[in-house]
C-alpha cells in the first residue's frame, strides 16, 4: 500500500515537474565552477561587436575542408585586439557522429576539439555563441521530399543533450544557439523550428549544470526577420530561461551579393529600406533582446566606398534599435588569418568606431541609381595615356576635421602635393600625380594613401592607373559540359564589376525586369552564373546552360571599375 502510494506520488511529481521546470535526470550534473547570472539583454549587449569564425568548424566534413586552417588561439587574440568582444563559433556536427539512431553519439575527438576552441575564447574573456550549424541543411531540413521529422527531432534532442552536458559548467559568457538558419519556407517548417526550440530547452535543462540560467539565442525560420515576425512562437516551457532572438541580415540582396550590377549603395532610399526592416522587427519584438548573428558586405565583392557607407549605416542602425552584431567572415573576405590583418583595414575600423557611436568620415561616392557612371572616393583613377592633371576626391567629414595624409611608406605628403578644403575636398597636385602615373608604369594601383581625421576610422585612398583589361579569347561556341575559365589580364583594379548579357536581337538574356533599373543595372547578369578571381573570368555550367537555352548568339559585356556606361569594358560573344 504505502509503497505503491509513494510510487504514485513520485509519478505525479515527475509529471508536474517535467512541464514546469527542469526535472532531475540521470544526466543532470552539478558544477564546481561559479556562474555569474546575466540577463539576455546584458549578455547580448556584451557581444558587440562580434566576429564569426566562419567556414571553419562548420566546414563539411571537417574544420579544414573549406580553405581555413584549424582555428588558432592567436587568431582569437588578434580579433579581440581589433576591438571584437565576442566570437560566434559555427559548428557542423553532421559527419561527426560515431553511430546512428537512437544513440547518435558525437565523436569524442570532435567534441573535445569544439570544447578546446570554446575554452580558448572564454579564457580571453570573449563572449561565445556556440551552435549547431549546417546540420540545418544536412539532416535537419524538413523541406526535402523524404524528410523524416521524427528523426530530426530525435537526433536534435540527442545532440543537444550531449552538447548541453559537455558545456553545462561553462561560464555565463557562453550562449547556446539551437540551430543556424533553420531550413524551409512555410508555416509547417516554422512550426518545427518552434518545436525544436522547445526540445533544445528541454535537453539543455535536463543536462543540468548552469544551463537553466544560461542565456540562449532562439530564432525563427531561416533566422530571417520576416519569417521570424510571421511565425516565431517561444515555447512556454522553462519560462525562467533567459533568452532572446537572433536574426541574420544580408540585405539588400543585390548589393550584398553583387547581383544585377548593383555596385552603388548609400542613397536615402537604400538607407530607409534597412531602417524599415529593423523597425518592423523591433515593432514585433519590442521587449525582446535580439542581435544580428550574421551580416556582411564582402570586401571581395562590394565596391569600397559603398561598402564603407553600408558598414557605417548598418552599425548605426543596429545601435538605434539596440541590437549587437556579429560579422560573418568566411576567412577570405574580412580578416586574413594567415597574414594576421584585415583585408581592408578601413572596413573594420569603420565598424568598431560606429559600434562606439564615434563619427566616421566616409568616402563620397555615387548614390544615384540613375547614374551612367560611378564615382568612388576610395579611389583616384587615371586612364592610361590621358594627360596628367590635378585630381580631386570628396569626403563626407561627418563633423570630423582632416588630420593627415601619408603614403604607403608612412611619409606625410607635403603641402605642394595636396590640399584639403574645410568641406572635405582633397586635391592631389599634377606634379605629385606625375610621379605615379608614368607611361612606363604598368596599370594597377600605384600608391595607397592613408587619411586620418580628428575622430573615427582612417581611410585608404588607392591611386589607380587603368586601361581596359584584355582577355585571351573573345569568341566561343557554347559548351555546357564544364565551367569555362577565360584568362583575363586586368589593367587596374583586379575585379569584374558587372556583366551585361544581350542577345543578338537586343533582348536581355535574363531578368527582363532590370529594364526598370538604372543604366548601370539594365540587362546585368547575376553573379553566381559567372565569377572571377585575380587572373580568370569564369562562366559556370549553370550560366553556360542559360546561354545555350537562349538559342541565339549572346554578347557578354564585362565591365570594370571605374564603371562608365559604354567604356572600360570588353565583349565576349557566344554562338550556339
Ligand atoms: C523516421 O525516423 C524514425 C526515428 O529515427 C525511425 O524510427 C523511422 O523508421 C523513420 N521513418 C522512415 C520512414 O524512415
Ligand atoms: C510585424 O511584422 C509584420 C511582418 O513583417 C509587419 O507587417 C508588421 O507591421 C510588424 N508589426 C509591427 C508592429 O511593426
Ligand atoms: C559590345 O557589345 C554591345 C552589345 O552587346 C555593343 O553595343 C558594343 O558596341 C560592343 N562593344 C564593342 C567594343 O564591340
UniProtKB/TrEMBL annotation:
GO annotation (BP), single: cellulose catabolic process
Gene3D superfamilies documented for this protein: Glycosidases, Immunoglobulins
Name the UniProt record assigns to this protein: (Trans)glycosidase
Keyword Signal on entry: yes
Residue ranges occupied by any Carbohydrate binding X2 domain in the UniProt entry: 374-463
Signal peptide segment: 1-21
Matches recorded under PANTHER family: ENDOGLUCANASE, PUTATIVE (AFU_ORTHOLOGUE AFUA_5G01830)-RELATED (PTHR31297:SF41), GLUCAN ENDO-1,6-BETA-GLUCOSIDASE B (PTHR31297)
SUPFAM superfamilies registered for this protein in UniProt: (Trans)glycosidases, E set domains
A GO-annotated cellular component: cell surface
Domain Glycoside hydrolase family: 59-332
Top-level taxonomy: Eukaryota, Fungi, Dikarya, Ascomycota, Pezizomycotina
Keywords, in A-Z order: Carbohydrate metabolism, Cell wall biogenesis/degradation, Cellulose degradation, Glycosidase, Hydrolase, Polysaccharide degradation, Signal
Source species of the chain: Venustampulla echinocandica
